[in-house]
Each structure stands twice: as structure tokens, then as C-alpha cells.
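Long-time lurker. I teach an intro course on protein structure, and each term I like to show students one example going from raw sequence to a predicted 3D structure in C-alpha cell notation. This year I'd like something fresh instead of my usual example. Would anyone be willing to generate the C-alpha cells for the chain below so I can use it in lecture? Attribution to the forum is fine with me.
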Amino acid sequence: MTSLQTSTAHSRKAVFVCLFVVCAVPITLRAQQNQVSGTVKDPSGAAIVSARVTIHTAHKIETTQADSAGKFQFSGLSDLTGTVEVAANGFLSSTQNWSLSAGNADLNFTLQPAAEGERVVISATRTELKLSEVPGSAVQLSETDIAANPALTADDMLRQVPGFSMFRRSSSRIANPTTQGVSLRGLGASGASRALLLEDSLPLVDPFGGWVYWDRIPRSGVSSVEVFRGGSSSLYGSDALGGVVQFLSKVPEAPSMSLDVSYGTENTPDTSLWAGTSISRWDLETSADLSHTDGYILLPASQRGAVDTPANSEHATLTGSAGYKFSDRGRVFLNGGYFTEARHNGTAFQKNSTATGSGAVGIDSPIGSSSQISARVFGQAQGYDQTFSSVRSITAPRDTEVPTDIQHVPSQQLGGTFQWNQTLKSHTLIFGVDTQEVMGASDEQLLLASMLSVAGGRERSTGLFAQDIFRIARKWTVIAGVRWDNWNNFSGSTVQTPVPAGPPTAVIFPDRSENSFSPRLSLLRALNSNLSVSVSGYRAFRAPTLNELYRSFQQGIVFTQSNPFLRAEKLTGAETGIRAVGFDNKLESRATFFWADIVDPVTNVTISTGSTILRQRQNLGRTRSLGVELDGAFHLTRTMELSAGYQFVHAYVADSSSSLIGKNVPEVPRHQLTWEARYWNPKRAMLSVQGRYSAAQYDDDLNTLVLPHYYVMDLFAGRELRRGFTIYLAGENILNQRYAFTLTPPTPLTSLAPPILARAGIRYDFPAREK
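-- Reply from a regular --
Happy to contribute to a lecture. Here you go:
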């Protein structure tokens, strides 16, 4: 009996197991077969590669990325209903419901481009913030804006932003890099930038001289550019006196590449490459940029002599980066780069060259669900060489060149930054610290004086900053920030040794230290969904560079002395603005009124005139800039757009112990106007026409040398072919306007801006845009 009961029990278990298997297998197979798939495209029908696709069900949330054809798929779903959300940079997100009751679901998403106000920028606040919420004057250039700009160099591309200018109004293709410092809002420049230039939060301003090597930026690797106008020392410290310009690089999420090759007039070949991929949690990318131009003779034919030769340039830059993503918001990276360039500056003897090696390591890591830390350590070593001469007329005009100075300027930089972001219910708190040390010297052979000279020193700076972004009742956005900086100049000296022999003479400069307190308060009030007003007040500063403190130079008969006793220049500024949107977000406009006072601005001041003009870098007293900026864009259709910008600024010397009171700040035009008309449909045609007007400006502190106004136009035309290829034509200064960019006493000699530069090129993008 017991045996029979046991046998019966085993039989029941066997039957139960069989029934379970019979029922479970179809259910399992069904779960494995259930899938949700689809495609992600933009309004032109092109695939949006690496769009983030998230599926939500009652039991799980899963995220994937669209492939090179814009396709995605989720399999093995046990739930029969849910939603799919798709998001991509530069587009509005979209959500659709799905159901498997009638079989597998196939979804098609067409993402609309985000309105300008919905774009996210980070430069203005060191954290992500919608452009419409920035209480200040911010401009973002998207990847399409960059592609539509026909300029070959990054500085010429940025000239379409009103208020952006440099010490000289010439292109970096032919200009000495020491004249390429950035100025915003008419603050002026004396070679050193009065705006901070960043690439992925790392500084690009030359640490010794404060100027910019624009060719260090491989254009094919740039995803967007942000320009924030207005004092930003409360977050960034020195160099951000007039604002921040930041280039943001592409980060690969799938195997991808962009190669741009062109050839233009003046024998100008150019190649730019970016390539990257992701392998599991790793992302790898590299970029290279190579260019050469034969250039042209700067002087007009009536002023040239036997010594005049074309101003030309060539450069090569190579970068690489590796990153590891250890969580959704956590990533570590290591990058490095090498840059070299060489130039002829208009005569056989006047040349300059640069070689730079740089590297950085960083980490971004979440702490819980509402905190994030970021840390960076960066450094670079650089060698800069420059030769100077004096041009004379012996038997004919400009027939003799006499070498005067041979300079070698080695410099090193090491720095680091740490930032902590904490998100609360209505607040975003930011705390951070950054520090850096720069050392450099100017080693010179003063040929006419038969003297060797070594002048240089070191500068160490540290800053602490904090900021709170908080919103009140969804109508008010308040940003309050403060920063304290300390910097020290030490080990400064000048040692001169007669040639061929003689005792050296040494001058040791005393160590000096300064502090700066830089607060900022901004308020934005949203009056309704289409209109907002803002007001801001701030302090900012810029410490003198080692170049201004210790390096002298000569251009023609003008000799400019260094000044080891310069103080930092400090700015007090205020602005108010209004932003309006209309016609269903097709029209976007912004107006900003600004005022800024700079105390102790570093200026090249004329001391004496004659056969040699002597100038010295000095703290002038006080300058003032006041004006208005207007920016607007009208999106006629999804493929047609009109945009324009205008700046009026009156920049003058408000206080000085010299006779310069009331004089205009040199190199600052009173009016700047830009416009663009664009038709952008890659399948049919890509066409962009741009114009730029700049009013007259003075080329010296005494306001005796006037550079006339100019107007130039640029053109880009292209068409996308099959398999990822695009052909294009680009023309800069298509009206061939030969305006003057500098006047050199005593004649004065007129240096002319470049003639028309016409290029034909081909670009290859992988993955290709889907037809």
C-alpha cells in the first residue's frame, strides 16, 4: 500500500511537471519573440545616429541607442504595453505608447530641432542650463551653424558674432599670433585676451602671453561653440574679464568619422579629420588638422619694396583621447595633443614659430542621485620663437632689412580644477577650486645693442568659487555667485650680458601678491512663455601676463617695453536684457544693454615719437564701455533661416593721468553688424550667404591712425551625395574688399586684409546620412 501511494505521488508530480513545461514554453517563447522596434529620423528624413531610446514597462526600464541607420529594437518583453522615449542632442524629445496585443510594435519617430531657447549651454554657469534661462548675452553655434560657415579658421568663423574681435582685425591665417587676443563688448585688447577661451572646460589661452593659437582647434571635431558676453570672473577667474568662448568636442557613442579636404586660392590645401568609436564602456577618439597657405604681400603695391615677401603660414595639430564610462553619469578620461606652426610675417627675416605639447586627465562622477563632482589636471610645455627687423630705404624704398632681435620664449603650465554640483528641489549649488602655475622667460639676442637678455618669472594663482542657481515659482531665475582669487608673481628678473664678452647686469624684481573678489548677481523674470527680462551686476578682473610683465618687442620703428610692475585690471559691470519669441517660436530675438568700467587697464601707451616710437605697457587709469547688443533669428521654414546681429559700443578713456582722457579705446569699432541667409536641405542644396560690417576704429592710443570701415561677404554652397560624401564651394570676402587692418608709422604703412579666398572641398561623414 505504501509502495502504491508512493508510485501515485511520483506520477502526479510527473504530470504536473509536464503540464508546467507545456504551458511555460509557449509563454517563454512568446516573451522572447515580443519586440518593439523602430527608427529615429530628423524632418529631412536623415537618420539620427546614437539617439537615446528608453523603453518603459511596468517591470523594467531599458535604454539603447539608435544605430547608423537610426534603427532600434527591444526584445524579450514580458509586458504587453508601455512607452518609448527618444532624445538626441539638438532635438526635442518625443514619446510614444506601444502595445503588443496585435503583434510586435514598430514605431517611427521624427524629432524636431530644438528651438534656440531650448538648447542647453554650460559656459555661462559651469552647469547645464537652457539658453532661454541664461540671464545674460549668450550665443550658441550648433554643428549646422559651423558647417554653414565658409571660414577656414575658427577666429574668422566667430567674427559672425557681434562684439567678438581681436587686437588686430586680420585673419589668423596671416597674422602674428601675438595679435590674436580676444575682445568682447569693446573692452579692447593689447595682444592678450580679455575673454577666456576654453575647449571642453580646459583653457586654450596661451599661459605666457594671453593670446590664442586658433589652429589648435580641429574643426571637424567641434560639436558646438558657446559665446557668453559679460564679465565671468565669478566662475572662471582671470582672463574671463569680458566673457567666455568655449569649443565643445564630439564624444563618440558609435563608430564614426568626419574627414574634410579642401584646396583654395593662394595655394591653400587644408585637411581636417575626426574619428572615434565606443567599445563597451570605452570611448576613443582622435583628430588631426593640417593646413598651409602661401599667403600674400601685406602692403599695397605702391608701398612695397625689395624686402617685402608674402605673409604665409602652415600648421599641424594632432590630438587623442580615451575615456571610460563607469556609470550613467560617471566617466574618466585622458587626452593629449601636439601642435606646431610656422609663419613668415611679411619680410624675409621676420618669422615666428611655435611648438606645444599638452595633456589632461579628468573624472566626472556622481555622488548619489543629486550630486556630481568633476576634477581636471592639465599641463603644457611650449616653445615660441620670433625674429624682428628694421626696414630701411637706402637706394630705394624698403630695399634694406636690418635684423634687430631674435627671441626664444620657453614656457610651462600646470593646473587643476575641482567642482562639486549639488541639485536640490529648486536649487543648483556649485562649489569649486582651481589653481595653476606658469613659468616662462624671453631669451633674446639684441643684435643692434650687442646684448643677450633673459627676462622672465613665474606666476601662481588660486581661486575659490561658489554659485547658487535657484528658481522661484517657475517665473524667477536667480543666479548668485562669488569668487576669491589670489595670485603671486615671483622669481622675476632681467639679466643682460654684453656680446662678445662682459659682466652680466641683473635686475631682480620684488615678489608681488594681489587678491581679487568677484561677485555676480543675475535675475531673470519670465513675464510669459514668449517674453522675459533680465538684469545682472558683476565684478571681474584680469591679472597681467608674464609677456606683459617681462617681454618687450618691436614692430617696424615701434618699440614696446614690458613693465614688471603692472597691476591687475578690474572691471565693474551691469547689464539688462529682454528676450522675445513669436510666431510659434519661429522668431527669436534678444536685446542687451551693457555698461562696464575697467580700472587700471593694461594699455600700450606712447611715451615718445621720432625716428623710433617708444611705447610701454602701463595701467592707464580707467576706461568705459557702454552699448547695446541685438541678436535675432527668423526660421521661415525648417530649411530656411534668416539671422542678424548688431552691436553699438562707445569705448573711451574715462580717467587718466596723461592727455588720453576722452580718447577712444584703440581697436574698438563703434558699430558691428552681421547677417546670414541660409537654405539647408542636404538632399537638395546647402547654401549660406553671410555679411559683416565693421565701422572705423583707431589703431593707436593717441587716435591719430584711423582704420576705415569695411564690409565683406562670404558664401558657402554644397550638396550631399551618396554614401556620406558632400561636395562644397566656400568663398571668404567674395567681394574682394582689401580693407586695412593695421597702420605702421611713420608713413604710415598700410597692411591689407586678405583678398578673396575661394575653396573647393569634399567631406566624408560616417555613418552616412540616410536618403
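Some talking points for your students: Confidence is low (pLDDT under 50) at residues 1-8, 15-32. The radius of gyration is 30 Å.
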